[in-house]
Every structure is written in C-alpha cells, then in structure tokens.
Design goal:
Blueprint: H1 7-39, H2 44-47, E1 52-58, H3 64-77, E2 81-85, E3 100-104, H4 108-115, E4 120-125, E5 141-146, E6 167-170, H5 173-186, E7 192-195, H6 199-210, E8 220-223, H7 232-235, H8 238-245, E9 250-253, H9 259-262, H10 264-273, E10 280-282, H11 289-294, E11 297-300, H12 305-312, E12 317-320, H13 339-347, E13 348-351, H14 359-368, H15 373-383, H16 390-412
Helix pairs in contact: 3-6, 3-16
C-alpha cells in the first residue's frame, strides 16, 4: 500500500528537512571556518575567501529579458558575477560571457536546497516570498535585493512577498511609497529603497527605436491576459474570443506563461477550439516584442504587459471589467489599494461583458481617441523612472553595497 502525502504536508515536511540539513550544514561549516581561522593566524579574509560577491537568481528563463542587461553591465565592467537559474534551457547559456558564470541549479525544491545554503555577499532576485515558503534566507548571505519584473504595484505579490528582503530597487517612486506604507502597517523594519528604473523596458525602447515604421498592415488586436481567477480567459473564455473574431480584424492571443502550467486544461481547450488561421494566432514566444510591436491595441486585465505597451509603445489599451479579489495580496493591507487599478482608469477603456457585441466599434473608437495620450505620458513618468539607466543603476547599487559590507567586515575583524 502506497503512502499518500498531500502537497501542503509535503511542502511542510520538505521545509523541516531543509531546516534540519541547513542547521547541520552551518554548524559543521562554522566549526570548519573557525578551525581555518585559527590555523591562519586569525585572518578574517581567509574565512571569507569562498564567499561569492554577486549572485543573480532567475526562477525561470522568462525573466532573462530583465537579467540580460544587468549581466551585460557586469560583463562590460569586467566584474565577475554568478547567474543561477532554474531553467535548464535558459538563454543565458547561449551568451559569450567571460565574467558571468552560469549554473543550472534544478527546479522546485532542488533549487531551494541550493539557495538555502548559498554563501554569497549580494543576492539579487525577482522572486517574492523569501523566507516565507521553501526559499529561506541563507545564514551566509549578507544582503538580499529584490527587483520588480514589471512597472506595476509591488504590493500585488502574494502576502508577505517582500517582507524579508533587505532592499528593493523600484521602477518608480510610487512603488517605494507603497513599501513604506506596508512596513508602517505591519511594524516592519525599514528596507533600503532606491528607484533605479527597469532594464528590460530600456531594451524594449532601444529595439523599438531601431525598427522601421510599417505601413499598410492589417489592423491587429493583441489579447494578452494575466492568469488566475481574475484573468480574462478564465472569466470570459470563448465569449471574448468570439467577440474578437467577429470584428474581422487580425487577432494575436498571448496567454501568460503560467497559464500553460496552472490553467493547462482551459488553454488546451481554447487552442483546439480556435486553431491558428491567417486571422488568428497563439503567441508563445518568450520575447513579447513582436506581438507588442505588430499590434494596434491591447486587450488585457491587470497584467503588467499593459505598462510595456503604454509606456514603451505608446498604444491604447482596453481592460476587462471584473471584481478583483485583493485578499491574498499585500495590497489588501493598504487603504489605497493599488496604483495599477487607479492608473488603468485614466490610460485605458474599461470593457464590460455586456459590450462584447459592440467590440469592433469600441476598438475603433479607442484607437482613434487621442484623449488617452496625455494620461499615458503622465503614468509613464510615475511608473518608469530613470529611463535608459536601469542596468547601470542596479550594478552601481550592488557594487556599492558590496563595498560597504566588505568595509564593515574589515572593521569588525
């Protein structure tokens, strides 16, 4: 008879096991380093010889567009950096780097086991939930830094997503204000906050500036929802796709990558019902540039792709009307829920399910309306600051922080 362990219990048992192994590992390591320290005549630098100065962790290859400019910046400065990834086919392995070491550390619990015993000075990641779920703070890491992977609210992470980071590098001042408000409400110690910009948006803008303007192309609608219970495809499914097909326009459907994992049954059903034609395509490219550049209007929900589209490409958006459940997210602790949803009211046109029958007229009116342009520019000034300097600012911060930590260690020794 096989013993069944439910996923929640399994996760708990894994955490306990990793905690026990980690405690044993660090106790042994402490003894080993102490012996090395005494054997070296008490030189502190001997104890820190194996500490990695800079580490980037990517939980998925889909974040390479964010990490690549940072890796390029370190490579350009000839500063060694360790890039850890949970994707075996991460595009990072295709780059011809001399100073960027790349390692595949496995997926899921295997990667957490590696991260939980990391010996490094600075660790930079986009992954929320540090010290909340399986990913625990290593006792041999000095400083954990979070960078958002989009220009929307950092409080739209699941509960306690950023509480145990030491620093957050934000895309705009409004994100920093949200973190401070959350710290105040929860009585948390203040983190270091710095507005640095957003490297992948910088690269998108460079790429767009190099494109030749295309004329005479067929009007194209991009449907790019988020995933989960509040996503367009979950809420409306066939209804919204049918309405778009009836417009006669070209349609690109680009589900969130997580939909192919967490909502596979729904996506598979829709892809069978709406196969690829000369008028409809499903976009699964890891790079969203082509879909964004070749479309005339975006239909979405609360997905961060809205801000790529508005800030970089300066194109109109339509967002679905729905009841968003704030309860599981950090923003539920705040009186002013989110910047994202307030800005959406200004930069885009809300679409109610009752209006699906008039989809063509609504799309045409939204594309022709110049009234959203000023709102797009204003929102961009708030949400995407330090334009063109994201990777530089992040590298500057990491290198400066490492210098501060090294100086403090030298003083203590």
């Amino acid at each position: 008879m096989l013993l069944y362990i439910d996923p929640g219990t399994g996760s708990m048992l894994f955490t306990i096991l990793i905690g026990m192994l980690g405690a044993g590992f660090f106790a042994f390591r402490k003894l080993f380093l102490k012996l090395r320290f005494l054997g070296s005549g008490g030189k502190a630098e001997t104890m820190n010889a194996s500490k990695i100065p800079y580490v980037l962790y990517a939980e998925s290859k889909r974040y390479w567009n964010l990490f690549e400019p940072i890796c390029d910046e370190f490579e350009c400065r000839e500063v060694p950096l360790l890039y850890l990834t949970s994707s075996q086919d991460d595009p990072a392995f295709q780059k011809d780097y001399k100073f960027i070491e790349r390692q595949f550390i496995g997926e899921g619990n295997k990667s957490f086991a590696k991260l939980n015993m990391l010996n490094a000075s600075i660790v930079l990641a986009t992954t929320p939930g540090l010290d909340v779920y399986q990913w625990k703070r290593s006792k041999n890491v000095d400083w954990y830094i979070h960078i958002p992977h989009m220009a929307s609210d950092v409080t739209l992470y699941r509960m306690f997503g950023l509480d145990y980071y030491d620093a957050i590098l934000t895309t705009g001042e409004y994100q920093s204000e949200e973190v401070r408000e959350l710290e105040k409400v929860r009585n948390l110690p203040p983190k270091e906050l710095k507005v640095v910009g957003l490297p992948y948006m910088d690269e998108l803008k460079k790429k767009l500036d190099q494109c030749k303007e295309k004329t005479g192309r067929e009007r194209t609608i991009l449907l790019a929802p988020s995933w989960g219970s509040s996503g367009i495809l979950t809420l409306f499914g066939e209804k919204v796709i049918d309405a778009l097909v009836k417009t006669g326009y070209k349609i690109i459907i680009r589900p969130h990558p997580q939909s192919f994992v967490s909502e596979k049954e729904m996506i598979d059903r829709l892809m069978v019902k709406y196969p690829k034609t000369d008028k409809l395509s499903w976009d699964r490219d890891s790079d969203n540039f082509s879909a964004l550049e070749s479309s005339d209007i975006l239909i979405s929900d609360f997905s961060g792709v809205i801000f790529d589209y508005v800030f970089v490409f300066d194109k109109p958006v339509i967002y679905a009307d729905y009841d968003f459940d704030f309860a599981p997210y950090d923003c539920s602790w705040l009186d002013n829920k989110t910047w994202t949803f307030e800005v959406l009211k200004k930069i885009g046109r809300k679409l109610d399910e009752s209006e699906f029958g008039h989809m063509k007229e609504i799309i045409d009116e939204c594309i022709a309306d110049e009234g959203y342009a000023a709102a797009r520019r204003e929102a961009g000034e708030e949400g995407w600051q330090c334009r063109g300097e994201g990777a530089k600012n992040i590298a500057d911060y990491m290198i400066q922080k490492h210098s501060e930590i090294s100086a403090a260690d030298s003083m203590e020794s």
